[in-house]
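--- STAGE predict ---
source: upstream dedup step, 1 unique chain passed
mode: sequence only
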Amino acid sequence: MAGARLEPGPGRPRQEHVTGAVLSAVLELMTEQGLTAVTMDAVAARAGVSKPAIYRRWPGKHGLVLAAAETRIGVLGMPDLGEFRAELEAVLDARLGVYRIPGTARLLAGLIAAVEEDGTVRGAYQRYVTGSWARREAP
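--- STAGE serialize ---
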């Protein structure tokens, strides 16, 4: 997500396993303890990476929470099934499946809090939400 994640700059390429480890650490901390547990120190320790490795990718914890939510929840794809009822059922089934994953309720609550606490994340969140609804998927 362009708003929550910094674009790569010059220098050596980023290691994707670091990104995955950091986002997994955020999801684990959010699931276990909520937003207050997500600190750069805690995420770095849990992910086994340095704090600079995190800051190279995200400017702060609120951006991390948004990126983790996007990883867990994904984008809301709107399938093109030819009839509204079938499309609505597909969307609701997909969302309910994600919402049933343990810790997702706490993640959503933390995401809302992060957007409210940090105005710089609000634009990225709005792009994520509106971009999700704008997508249509072929069957």
